[in-house]
Amino acid sequence: MTPKFRTLLGATALGLLMATGQALAADPIKIGVIAEAQAIAGASIPQAAQLAADEINAKGGVDGRKIEIVTYDNHSSSADSVRAFQRAVNEDKVNIVIASYISEVVLALEPWAARLKTPLITPGAASNEISKAVHADYEKNKYTFHGYLTSAALAQSVCDAAKELLVEQRHMKTAVIMSEDAAWTKPLDVGYEDCLPKIGLKVLDHIRFSPDTTDFTPIFNKIEGSKPDVIITGISHVGVQPTVQWKNQQVPIPMFGIASQATNSTFGKDTNEAANGVIYQGVSGTGVAVTPKSIPFTDAFKAKFGNFPSYCGYTAYDEVYYIADAVKRAGSTDADKLIAALEKTDWIGTIGRVQFYGKDDPFTHSIKYGKGLITGLMLQWQDGQQVGVWPADVAKAKLKFPSFIKVTSN
Amino acid sequence: MLALQILIDGFAISALYALGATGFTLIFGVSGVLNLSHGAIMVLAAVAAWAAASLFQLDTYSGALIGVAVAVVAAFATYFAVVQPIQRSRRIPNEEKEIFVLTGTLLWGIMIQELIAYFFTNNAKTVLPIVEGVVDIAGIRTPRNEIFTAVVCCLVIALLWLLVNRTRTGKAVLAASMNPRGVTLLGLELGSIYIVVWAIYGILAGIAGVLLGMFLGVSSYSVGPLTASAFSIVVLGGLGSVSGSLIAAFVVGYLETITAYLISPAYRTIPALLLLVAVMYVRPQGLLGRR
Amino acid sequence: MSGFFKSRLFFISLAVVIIAATLPLYVSGYVLGLLTVAYYFGVFAMSWDLLFGFAGEVNFGPTFLIGVGAYTAGILNAQYGWSVYVCIVLGAFAAVIAGLVLALPALRVRGPYFGLTTLVAVLILQNFVVVFADLTGGEIGLTIPDVITIDAGANYWIALGFMTISALILYGLSQSPIGLVLQASGQDPVQAGALGFNIVKHKLAAFIVSAFFSGLSGALLVFYMGTASVGTVVDVSVGVNVIVAAVLGGRRTVLGAALGAIFLIVAGEFLRPTGELATFIVSAVALLVVLFFPGGFLGAALSHESR
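^ Those are the sequences you sent over. The predicted structure of the assembly is below.
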């Protein structure tokens, strides 16, 4: 170790002292945000959290305490995230952490939330394992909250929409599942396999591919070979490439399901408008008034950052609000009191009415899915715009496909 | 039917691999440099073409030209800022220059990759194809763009062949790749030959990058795999042997396509990797390599 | 070797280790956590340097050896519930076997061909992890139920002690007659062979030692982090960091490699406020060192000291 290195360490120690001094003076509520700044979905997380914090602070904060957002870029890596989490808790003394849209990252952080006894909430990871672990060992893992739908709920949401849009309106009968090989798609695929036949879509084939895949030609050819009416997707790490190749190869089958990258408003440009026709699930969407808060949020986000938020922007924004609400109710940022208050959350946010499943439900600490709570939406890219197509009470647009798609009946 | 499908799809991807690897092997042949920023330069070309078209509203042809131009600039930057200083350095012993060039170009590639991710996110980008639509080849629906890719690759490689075998500059390059010292004896300036080679390299990598952006799309994540695949193809073919690289590109391209179609897309790259290890074991100098 | 104990380098190293050992008394758990990772990384880099700096072989696949050690230990613990210490030992031995398997084809070839063979080994391991997802956790990574301890201070001392012992052995080996033969064979294999040394045997030995420490360190890291994933212990980019660390710290110095690794990890963390540009800045600094101070940190320092 060089002397220079020790000087650096000294500087850190000094910085730490100064930080503690400031904390005593203002005593803000500190929320750590660990996210993927370079990924299009992840980039919205710190932005939306900051927006919510600014709004709350402008109205005087929580009982006079300001909300302070401390952000960390995790380079989409679990190792970096663990390090950031340690830094957030031990050095920056945050009270709670909002982290990541990648299930792998959240699963790596979950044991650390337990070890460092700091609440953790994810705005965008979907794996069932996150909340199942809380259920399996509540005392240890109660620190983790799942602020987004589980893969099981996502599959249910897609099936509920497919029943109305595809089976009842378009009389479709068969489907092929196409999903990337990742933590969150395992339970998603189980959910699809289970609910698609129930709504009347026979599953002809099931293709899982590596998230590193760049050439989708063989996959689309294989799917076309089994002649399904629709491709049910489960993709998040990939998005642009399959969509563009789908259009360039003029695969005559519509894509319907989860496509996280499509939730971002730049997706149209990234794909040179190949996105037109893609139908994807979202918890909320541009121009869709899921609740009275949805549209004001997207407008404020666009005004501040120049683009619309991705799906985890909505959830991250809501999370800051209901964390603030929980701190207010708990009257403290003490971890155990905060957890007790978060468990009683009943918050109307931008994505619907947020409540968490309890200790005895299988998906403990995950947000509740269902009518009157959160149902999700289906949206479609049409002429370079994202429009809501389901459910009918909030989304009015009709499905519209590019000319190369051959939809069986209208 | 399936066989024809594999034949068509495999050809396009193989031709693209061949084009990407040709410049890489040429540089090695002439100057002994393995440029590990290769993938970054290809991705940079594609992203530049994408940015020109979608951010600055240029037409597809201008976008593609800008992509290639950016690759040439990046190739020269690699040579003058990284490779040449290492080759001329007195502090680096000669027998270690190779590892320094490898490390230096690797770091340079990471820098380019990070800048791309910083300015354009790590999301995949696709360049709008010059030709759109599909044609029917004996019942196989083939995108026109795929045919275009294959044709351009073959044309460029043919042009390169003409350049090397039919022009004076080309012959000098060829001579330099066989015996650099001999070329100096003949009174040819080795330095200017290097510049010509890096220019050719930039053009080849640029075209390959832009075509890849049109055909499959690229992201900053593609940098590592692209470098690794060029490296593998070039070693498989025999370092410095252009014709060896061409053969190897087709072997790898078809092996991957066949695996993806007949076994599973998830196992796509494995057989090619195993083949590579096997070749290393039996014939370390590669298919057409000189020892 | 005996000269080392009298050299200035030895006293500096000793002082640094002693100061480092007292760190838990006055720095935060976060800094300790950071250095813990840095020390394990330091062992990766030193092991790599033994193979490259002394045997002259550019191993592009340090993470093949690290990954085998890490995953073996992790899988045995997560899937079969074996005790942490047994898993760590078996992880190290698995890495040695992997090193032997890799050395067989790799030592037949030289230069770029050797580099490629080792790189391919990493790519194959990566595919293997993904394909056998039931066993390895696939892209998700493997969550390890047991950790050595969650106490930041204890973890730090384990890592520091491990790095110090590894450094002593690896440095000692590099200065021993074996190290000199390796160095000779790296620079001029023909002449070294003509002098009657069995180069292949010496290189194989270097390979095995390198594999042992890489695997051991990988296994320990897994039980510190509580997860094993491709992105942490196998990915080519992790290997690139190891190589950069060794070149940055000064190749052929062994100890410099550890210095480079600590610098890389700590610098990366200090640059975290720069967000996405952190990796760019670290790479740029490393490139400048490669271009202008090819001897690395320790190389520059040692060149003033006569040996």
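The interface with chain B takes residues 38-40, 43, 76, 181, 207-210, 212-215, 217-219, 221-222, 238-241, 244-245, 248-250, 261, 266, 269-272, 274 of chain A (CB under 8 Å). Chain A has 14 helices and 14 strands.

Shout if you want it in another format.
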